[in-house]
Specification:
By secondary structure, chain A is mainly α. Chain A is about 70% helix and about 5% strand. Chain A binds a DNA duplex through helix 4.
DNA sequence: TTTTTTAATTAGAATATTCTAATTAATTTT
DNA sequence: AAAATTAATTAGAATATTCTAATTAAAAAA
């Protein structure tokens, strides 16, 4: 197999494991995998309305309404009626819901610390340069 | 924020996106998120028995029995009675189930190709060296 | 301004996911 | 060998997840 691809596979696995252990650190155990998926999508979409969320997740609007009601009940999400269109409800994460981002940050911080402990300053500089070049491509 | 941590966050997001688009390429749409999670865990655990899978996933054995029965029905998984302990059933992915790995491979291959298109040979060599050093630490 | 469309919700049903309690069958301990 | 333990399953119930169809309310089109 392509060596680079193999390296990526190992790194990818490590990231997934760190994310999973971060999930345990934070109190997201009370949520199902599906509910986590709703939170992740709301987070990525930046306050979508219900129709946008349903479209993005490939589900019907009634399904999303019901699922969101549960997340509102659990205080991870709240709705805000749009001013431009009073029919539309925008979805926001509560402070509790925003812990999702702190959870991700924690996983990334752990990986960063591991790298810092493995590399010397020059190596870190080179690694950062290369990865930045990659991320800023196009 | 720590620059390295930020780079990791962006890279992590890219990997997640590539994995998600790979999932669409392969025919894993007929599975729920939860069912995918079962397959992923069986894959990681390398043919666990039912008790091991239940323990790893933090679920009860009856729950896992029922869930696995559905995945067997859909032909993603099969059971093999252990020779050492005839009570124990080891779980294996079928060929169809193993597409899961090809799906991951596909995502990793896409990322590798993107990197190859961004970096020249020297940069690739350095990047691979650094990441290998990281992965072989400890 | 009446009609049509659109965003969200409610109602009700089907399937999925999980649990506890009880059962079956094989292994281990006494 | 009998008793206790263990792996898996079955039965039955509770909750979660999703759908279609119908409803409400607001916006857009005629």
């Amino acid at each position: 197999m392509n060596e680079l691809q193999n390296i990526i596979a190992l790194l990818s696995r490590e990231i997934v494991e760190l994310e999973e252990s971060a999930k345990e650190q934070f109190s997201f155990n009370e949520l199902t995998l599906t509910q986590m998926h709703y939170l992740e999508t709301i987070n990525q979409q930046q306050n979508p309305n219900l129709t946008e969320l349903a479209l993005e997740m490939g589900l019907t609007k009634p399904s999303v309404t019901v699922a969101i009601d549960k997340l509102i009940e659990k205080e991870y999400v709240y709705k805000v009626k749009s001013d431009e269109d009073r029919r539309s409800m925008h979805l926001h994460l509560t402070e509790k819901g925003k812990l999702l981002n702190q959870m991700h940050d924690y996983a990334h911080k752990l990986l960063a610390e591991r790298m810092i402990s493995v590399f010397d300053d020059d190596e870190l500089t080179v690694l950062k340069q290369l990865l930045k070049k990659y991320l800023n491509r196009k």
